[in-house]
Design a protein that fits this description.
The protein is α+β, with helices and mostly antiparallel strands and 111 residues long. 46% of the residues lie in helices and 21% in strands. The strands form 2 sheets. Strands 1-2-5 form a 3-stranded antiparallel sheet. Helix 1 crosses helix 2 and helix 1 runs parallel beside helix 4. The chain is elongated. The two termini are 24 Å apart.
Length: 111
């Protein structure tokens, strides 16, 4: 695995990469098996992020997972640990979780 950097800051890792150059465009990097680094997320954020991923893979699609996230506020929801973690997040922390989920969704989206 190789580290991936953005502005000299490590942001993820990948199995391999290549730089594609198409005439008339800016070169772009193709990453294989990219995984974002998520060490900056706190434990509550990690719990919510993992719930989003699992929900997407087990029961639904990306859009539905975002919609269902709101149900973590509902009383009696079956995901007690996730509900508690979600309610502890402030707006900035939730935005970070959604950004991480978006990165994961892009990396794992079916073409």
């Amino acid at each position: 695995m190789s580290l991936v950097y953005n502005n000299d800051k490590p942001i993820g890792k990948c199995e391999s990469y290549s730089i594609d150059k198409i005439p008339g465009t800016t070169p772009f990097v193709m990453l294989t098996n990219y995984e974002p680094l998520r060490s900056e997320l706190n434990p509550d954020q990690q719990i919510v992020l993992e719930w989003l991923k699992e929900y997407t893979l087990d029961d639904s699609d990306f859009r539905n997972a975002i919609f269902e996230l709101n149900k973590l506020y509902s009383a009696g929801f079956s995901y007690k640990k996730e509900e508690i973690a979600f309610k502890k997040l402030n707006d900035r922390e939730l935005a970070q979780v959604l950004a991480a989920f978006a990165e994961w969704g892009i990396a794992n989206a079916e073409e």
